[in-house]
Design goal:
This protein has two domains: about 10-205, OB fold (Dihydrolipoamide Acetyltransferase, E2P), CATH 2.40.50.140; about 235-304, Orthogonal Bundle (Arc Repressor Mutant, subunit A). It has a five-stranded mixed beta barrel. It has a three-stranded antiparallel sheet with strand order 2-3-4. Helix 7 (about 235-255) packs across helix 8 (about 265-270) and helix 7 packs across helix 9 (about 280-290). The chain is of the alpha+beta class. It has helices at about 10-15, 85-95, 130-155, 160-165, 170-185, 190-205, 235-255, 265-270, 280-290, and strands at about 10, 20, 30-35, 40, 45-50, 55, 65-70, 75-80, 100-110, 115-125, 260, 295, 300-304.
Length: about 300
């Protein structure tokens, strides 16, 4: 049985800055998004003000919803669809912006120009009192500063063995993420990011006064624009490929012991029918976004 990874405590600014993805390898391996500040994220826990959600999508507009979570450091999109029914209901229920805690998986999307947009696909959205929001933000700031200290320590060449990390109470996942972040983001301005965190510290302290103008960004970030226009509908050929994908999914699921279609086996059968590589990936993404297919267990698919 696949176990959920612990949720990293991060700020919206760190999510916005995270533009490197590590795809999973092997059976049921999860993908991760690496931040410049030492987080290697599959799941995250964030807190802030969540806007009223709006429906998005191509043919089933009520099946996918998007809101924005804003904290003192920035903003990030939060989404949920019919394959996250509880989170979707929680997004849809709100009629005004409110303080909330969100737990979900990090998703990095790149458009055709290669520009990256980060969002959080919610597993749960909980409306909370302002004091609870500040408490979660305080935890995120504390862990972020600890990770920045670890980055500086490793960057200075200080040797840190796994045994030493355990003795000092430093999670080994942090050590690995720090080393990867230094390699993937050699020019990240962590000092600027530390200064930006002061806005979050002010929020934790209950200061609701004007937020100072932000300093230059720690990394080059392209902020997500307002919701883009809906993409063009799938072509007849793409719909035919979707039909092939679903027929084979049903065949694999029907003979499996657990009622799920194994992703690896399904992709092999789809490839044998001439739909492989990026085309197969694009087909699966469309079906997931439209709420037709879901992946409740990593590497296991079923109709939603």
């Amino acid at each position: 049985m696949a176990l959920r990874e612990p949720a990293w405590r991060v700020t919206a600014r760190e999510l916005e800055s995270s533009l490197e993805q590590e795809p999973g390898t092997g059976d049921r391996a999860a993908s991760h998004v690496l931040s410049p500040f030492g987080a290697r994220m599959n799941r995250v826990l964030i807190a802030g003000s969540v806007s009223v959600a709006e429906p998005i999508g191509r043919e089933t507009p009520q099946a996918f919803w998007r809101a924005r979570l804003t904290d003192p450091t920035g903003a990030v999109a939060v989404t949920a669809g019919s394959f996250q029914p509880r989170a979707m209901a929680q997004l849809r229920a709100a009629t005004f912006p409110r303080s909330a805690i969100v737990v979900g998986k990090v998703h990095l999307y790149r458009d055709r120009g290669g520009v990256g947009y980060v969002s959080v696909r919610a597993e749960a959205v909980r409306t909370v009192a302002e004091a609870d929001e500040r408490a979660v933000l305080a935890d995120a700031v504390r862990q972020t500063l600890d990770r920045l200290d670890l980055l500086e320590r490793i960057e200075k060449g200080t040797e840190l063995t796994d045994a030493e990390a355990r003795t000092e109470g430093i999670p080994l996942a942090w050590v690995r993420a720090a080393r990867d972040a230094l390699r993937k983001y050699p020019n990240a301005d962590r000092a600027a990011f530390r200064r930006e965190l002061k806005n979050a510290v002010r929020r934790v302290a209950g200061d609701s006064g004007p937020v100072p103008s932000p300093r230059p960004p720690a990394v080059t970030v392209v902020r997500a624009p307002p919701p883009p226009p809906a993409p063009p509908p799938p072509t007849a050929a793409e719909r035919e490929e979707e039909s092939v994908f679903l027929d084979l999914l049903d065949e694999v699921a029907e003979v499996s012991s657990d009622g799920y279609a194994d992703l690896k086996e399904l992709l092999a059968r789809v490839a044998a029918r001439g739909v492989e590589g990026e085309r197969a990936e694009a087909t699966l993404n469309r079906l997931e976004e439209e709420g037709v297919v879901e992946e409740p267990i990593v590497g296991k698919l079923r109709r939603a």
